[in-house]
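The records we work with from here on pair a chain with its fold. A complete example follows; check for yourself that the lines match position by position.
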Amino acid sequence: MIKLPKILLAAVGAASIGGAAQAEANPTIPSDQSVRNIVLVHGAFADGSGWRAVYEDLTARGYRVTIVQNPLTSLADDVAATRRALARQDGGTILVGHSWGGVVITEAGVDDKVKGLVYVSALTADVGETAGDQYEGFGIPSTFVVEEQADGFGFISADRFKEGFAADVGDADVAFMRDSQVPIAMSSFATPVTQAAWRTRPSWFIVATEDAAIAPAMLRQQAEKIGAVKVEIRASHVPMISQPHAVADVIDQAARSAGPQAN
């Protein structure tokens, strides 16, 4: 397993949706940088639109960014969607997963094009483990209430959505996120992972210190387990929405760490 220094790269304050005014311009990537592709994988109860601000930030830096749309019908289906996106990349790629998307990139990230993994307030797992196994010893915060339907798909409680999922996002945006939820097949959380990409790929892990969906202590334990470079950001469970520039900075660092193209 590749072990990276466990360093704290950033600790930033909360901002409104779309991010606070940036103190400095986005740095354009060098022309000879070897990794220029980013694939973003969303989590449960959401779709790829939550990556919009991060997408705009990274494309302004010169990256080619692809956003996966997970069906959320099973781990296998979400991994297949991610693999389709990876197949369209023209070279080295950083694979990024938010929340449930962390399990997806753990399984899909063994693709030869993947040069690094970035976990954003995410779940991880080892071979033979499930997403649900990761909560052992921590439990699910009482602020995060999922209502399972008769068909086995779950939604976040509408009444608790802001509190548990996006406390630092404006009310109008929270309302849209709440009312455009994509339910997940709850059986997905009981499906074991068959491959653990973090064992062979360098990894970064963003801990959202105000996360009310996954306990920050659990997030720190997940980062420690996989030997990731740990970054703490003061944000709710959706730092890619409330702190997009800080999230983009971590992804950029992961891509730059691969160095220049070979001559």
Observations:
- The chain has one domain: 37-256.
